[in-house]
Specification:
five-stranded antiparallel beta sheet; eight-stranded parallel beta sheet; globular; 14 helices; alpha/beta
Amino acid sequence: MMSTASALTYCLNIHPAETYEDIISTLEGPVLGVKTLVSPDQSFPIGMRVSGQALEVLSEPQKRAQLKSVLSGLDMKAISMNGFPYGPFHGTPVKEEVYLPDWRSDIRLDYTTGLIDLMTDISDEKWMSLSTVPGCFKSNAAGAEESMANRFIAAAAHAVKAERETGKTVALAIEPEPCCFLETIDETIRFFETYLYGASAVRQLSELTGESVQASEELLRRHLGVCYDVCHAAVEFEDAAKSLGDLQAAGIPIHKLQLSAALRVPNVDASSRKALVKFEEPTYLHQVVSRNSEGLTRYTDLSEALARKDTADGEEWRVHFHVPIFLDDLGELGTTQAYLAEILAQHRQTPISPHLEVETYTWGVLPDRMRTSTIEEAVARELTWVMDKLA
């Protein structure tokens, strides 16, 4: 499908995956349609999503065997899993609830370890990535750092044991996001260095797995790293090269690179504010980061930012609304496609991650004028755009 050493896929969270039946019909329908367009004669890597409800059904060995058989019959291989949304993700408002249960809860830990076991059962891949919530929503984080870290380490211990039993590695990839406990790269590095890679964490993993302290230090990095979502980083006004370099300098691996683009308004005015109203929808949270001469200001949702009216004029806004990555001009609005192109150029020179995953999950809530093709054609166009950038 592509000539680089990394695997390119797209995230199936753009399709329904609430039930087991949803997953099968998605694979046999739109995913097969995308495969036919971009990879008709080769095995097609996919980034799966399995809800908490579907995971319960897949606890039955017969269902797991059936899913594995379907994947094999369609010539698809599950290389990654999006373990971020636990519950419903389409057709109903999720907003802040998308983070729940978060890493303050054992339900999130059990869900994640269940996905690790599922991945090693249904996939023949020797190395897989599993992206997850960046702890919790920021307003819920106070005093929860240590308990969340303990659960992350427990999940890593489960992955270590699964690797020992199956020979397959599942790498947990924590995904920073605006207005979450981990939103900037600097915050992420501090959390990893203090809570996930420090001496206490190494001892904890050693006790949970029976591995030596020396081995546990390496195993933490093997099984705990970052999912770098390009949309999220662009919204946070991260410097692309610096953010990647800082992660590398801290020894934090990027287990998955999610390829996505956000809305960008270089200079807010009445016209752009009017255009943004079309993206003010009730399903997903659309965080806004505003930049002016005094620095950055964050808003939990687009409606909150738009409520400022003309007091925001002259600022630059980045809006967490995933838009098709092949678009850089939306008329009155722009996108952060240039940031994504910079990341891909760097990956082409020096690979950033083993897994590249396109993740535009908002097709169902985009303005009508942006939905002019089938979802299969749109996803194929995104994948082709990436391949062209990497050629």
